[in-house]
Amino acid sequence: MAFDGITIACMAHELQEKLAGGRISKIAQPEADELLLTIKTREGSYRLLLSASASLPLVYLTETNKPSPLTAPNFCMLLRKHLSGGRILSVRQPSLERVLRFEIEHLDEMGDLCKKYLIAEIMGKHSNLIFCTDTDQIIDSIKHVSAQMSSVREVLPGRTYFIPDTQEKANPLTVPEEDFLSAVGEKAAKLSKALYTSLTGLSPVAAEEICAMASLESDRAAGSYTKEELIHLYRTLVRYLEPVRSGDYEPAIYYDGKTPLEFSCLPLSIYNHCRRETFSSVSKVLEQYYAEKNTLTRIRQKSTDLRRIVQTSLERNVKKYDLQAKQLKDTEKREKYRIYGELINTYGYDVEPGSRSFEAQNYYTGETVTIPLDPQIPVQENAKKYFDKYGKLKRTFEAVTTLLAETGSEIEHLRSIQTALDIALQEEDLVQIKEELMESGYIRKRNPGSRRPKITSRPFHYVSGDGYHMYVGKNNLQNDELTFQTAKGNDWWFHAKGAPGSHVIVQTNGDELPDRTFEEAARLAAYYSSNRGADKVEIDYVEKKHVKKPNGSKPGFVVYYTNYSMMIDSDISGIQQL
């Protein structure tokens, strides 16, 4: 979920509980658009991160310290002058706006007690941190906004602070039913968009949830609903926001397997199919969610070049495969030409010279066929002409069949590398994939004598509910290593049927595996395959001793002729990872 008004409300509630009465002991500005405040309370010290980054504005409590520049920026020095030792009186959110107001009491130069406000606006590219007097006069801000930059509001020292009401949205906590009906019901946009564009603080995800709770179609035009249906939607909105009024939040992250999909401070029934992990505070949710998201984003960025190489090679091979398949289809006439030649040699002696065709009985099928002839050449030379066509097409068929198999194997290999790139979670996982691409000729090999990078990536390691160790290869090289070096003959081997994916090995220690372990290993094979997310994935499993690797085959490619199969989902949330 976006850092919307509901998340801000939950954050205000948390900060009010933890920081009210606390004193600001340290003020740092690690980045040009970021503050880190250390606040001492009776319960202990807290670090508060305030970021006005245009790409990722955030406010949350953290245990992580960040290095600061040797020379503090002017805004940081100003805050230190006024707020060092200051006491936080309250943390409030105006309406359901994406704004936090920190009311801070401190002593001025004369030793008199006075109040100031530090205001955090979490508004995407318009985010800012603004320092004001108790009369809302701006003292300074971390970003200056002049009249040339914005025609709506200047954010400069000496100006009066106010929250711009550019979209004329209503406060969902106080909006009357009649105003709601006119604001939402008169819009031509789809219902969910009408909600979040008419009401302050609602994100698209929250709007979708409200529509789902009301059992109304979110993508249907808001104006097409009856008054009774919109009244029902209004009452659903009131019920949905009741925890915001009472402060009864449930911060959680929703996962698709190991991938964080959304976070929310209120339950989201639209993600009931996902694993939900709850937290004691919204700060922990934000810190973990964005840390995990950043990890995935960083790996995606690091793997961009490798993905482009694989995608380009895959597209080239798919085109080649289509051309070869067309060539192979064109050779289907070869047997017809051979039979024509044989029938001419058998029955052609009675055909008059200059004939354009003749009929003969196909002694293979008993059917009568009409054979075209070239009247310019003798009849028997027509037979030779058909045999020559047959020979040419036969040679083409044999060559193209081999090439088609090689190209198909290449496509399968490249798709398996794509899956390995999707599985990669750390930079060291990419090193081994790059090595495989070098060995396969997709990337130019390093110069002789240059140092080979150290391989530190290891297979995923899980433990089943019955205590058996399960290993999952992250790429084709690890798959080969697991299957043919790590696994013993009686260990069990799992793989998604007909799909690129990881080899999963379960070490049996000579035991007969319980059914639950078979199911957990199959879920791992389903999750770490290109079929991840499907409701049902077919998994082949067999004892490792029945898995063979053909000579000269691509990394990760194996064959087996006797196996069991099961249909399973790809939910691995309950499996313990070491």
The low-confidence runs, each spanning 5 or more residues with pLDDT under 50, are none
Let me know the average pLDDT: 87
Helical proportion, percent range = 25-40%
> How much strand?
15-25%
- Sequence of strands across the biggest β-sheet: 20-19-17-18-16-15-21
By DSSP (H or I, 4+ residues per run), the number of helices equals 14
Radius of gyration: 35 Å
- What coarse outline follows from CA principal-axis ratios? elongated
Q: Work out the number of β strands.
A: 21
Report how far the terminal alpha carbons are from each other.
29 Å
Question: SS-based structural class?
Answer: alpha+beta
Largest sheet: 7 strands, antiparallel
Walk me through this protein's architecture.
The protein is an alpha+beta fold. Helix content is 37%, strand content 21%. It contains 14 helices and 21 strands. The protein has helices at residues 5-19, 74-83, 177-185, 191-198, 204-213, 227-240, 242-246, 282-302, 304-330, 334-347, 379-423, 427-439, 476-486, 515-527; strands spanning 23-31, 34-41, 44-51, 58-62, 87-92, 99-107, 113-121, 128-133, 138-141, 252-256, 259-264, 275-278, 357-361, 368-372, 460-463, 469-472, 492-496, 504-506, 537-543, 564-568, 576-577. It has a 7-stranded antiparallel β-sheet, with helices on both faces. A 5-stranded antiparallel β-sheet has the order 5-6-7-8-9. It has a 4-stranded antiparallel β-sheet with strand order 1-2-3-4. Helix 9 packs antiparallel against helix 11. It is elongated. The two termini are 29 Å apart. The relative contact order is 0.06. The mean pLDDT is 87.
